[in-house]
Amino acid sequence: MDKINKVVLAYSGGLDTSVILRWLKETYSCEVVTFTANLGQDEDYDLVKKKATQQGVKEIFIEDLKEEFVRDYVFPMFRANPLYEGYYLLGTSIARPLIARKQIEIANKVGADTVSHGATGKGNDQIRFELGYYYHKPDIKIISPWREWDLTSRTSLVEYADQHGIEIAKDKRGEQPFSIDENILHSSAEGKVLEDPWEEAPDYVYTRSVSPENAPDTPEEITIEFKQGDACALNGQSMTPFELLKALNEMGGKHGIGRVDLVENRYVGMKSRGIYETPGGTILYHAHRAIESITLDKEAAHMKDELSPKYAELVYNGYWFSPEREMMQSMIDKSQAKVEGKVRLKLYKGNTMITGRESSMSLYNPNLATFESDNIYSQKDAEGFIKLSALRLREKK
Length: 397
Description:
Elements: E1 6-10, H1 15-28, E2 31-38, H2 45-54, E3 60-64, H3 66-78, H4 95-110, E4 114-116, H5 125-136, E5 141-143, H6 154-163, E6 179-182, E7 187-190, E8 220-227, E9 230-234, E10 237-238, H7 241-254, E11 259-265, E12 271-277, H8 279-295, H9 298-317, H10 323-335, E13 341-348, E14 351-358, H11 366-369, H12 381-389, H13 391-394
Parallel strand pairs: 1-2, 1-4, 2-3, 4-5
Antiparallel strand pairs: 6-7, 7-12, 8-9, 8-13, 9-10, 11-12, 13-14
C-alpha cells in the first residue's frame, strides 16, 4: 500500500461518500479534504459542510460551478447535437470532466498527493473521473474505494455508518429503491426497482417532470434565440447560459418533456437500464437542430451528423480531454459561425414541436424552393443530373 499523505475526495455528503471519508482516514491514516461541486443540483450545501465538519474535515471546498458548467461544457457539447445510442443527452457524462479538473486544482492548492471518488467498479464514472485526473496530473495517486474495500452492498454501508456514528438521512437506511445523479442538465436514476427492463418505472422515480398524461391541455409557445450555435435568449429576454437552461427545465418539466427510459451499453461492457430526465436539454436540442436546418450548408450539416455519434461516444466514455474530441470540437465550432437566429416551438404533453425558424444568415431561398413558377431553376436540367446519377445503376451486370 502506497503511503498517502493527503486526499481530495469528491464529496456529496450522501451515504457512499460519507462512509468513504471515514474509510479513507481509517485505511490510509491520512488527512482528507472534501470537494463538492454545485452544478445546479438541488442540494443543501450548508448540510454538506456540516457533515464534513462532523467527521473532522478541516479543509472543505464547496464551489459554485453552475455557469461554468453550462457555458464551457454543456453548450459546447450541444453544438454537436450529441445523442449516445440515439437517446441519451449525456447529462452525467458531461459533468465528470469539470469535477475532475477542479479536484486536481484543489489537490495542487492544498498539496494533496491523492484524489478519490465514490464511483463503483461496475460503472462509467470511475473511467470519466480518472481519465480527467490523469490528464491534468499524470502522476496523481487515485483511490477508488469500491474497487478496494469489502463493503459490497448498501446494507453493509449503513452498518458501517452506524458503527462509526456517521449521520445519514433516514431515507437512506436499508435498501434504497434506486440511485440518483443530478445537475442542472438532467437527473438520472438506475438500480433496484429499475433493474428489470420489462417493468415500467414507477412514477416516483421522476423528479423534475410531470407525466405527459398529466401535463397541461394547452400548448405553450416559446422562442429561443441563438448566436454562433449557443442559445442566448428566451422569449426575447437575454439570459446567461445557466439561467436559460434553468428556465427551459421549468417549462419542459411542466409539459412532461425530456423523459427517456433507456437500456444502454456501458463502456465497461455491460448493459444498464437508466431513467433520464432532461427537459431543458431536450428543448434545446430540437431548437438547435431547427436553426441549423436553415443556416448550415447541406454537406456541412451531413458531416456534422456523421460526427455526432462519435462525439457522443467520446463524451460518454470519458474522453472529454482527449485530442480527438478537441479536434472534433474545432470542426464543430467552425460550423457554428453563422448558426444564429430565432426558433419558435410549442411545448405540449411530452412533445417539442418546431413551428418556425428565421435567421439573417438563412440559406433557405423561398424563390428557389417554391412550387410556383420561377426564373432561377430550370426543371429540364434535372434530367441530365438524374441520368448521370443513374449511370452506374444502368451499367450494372
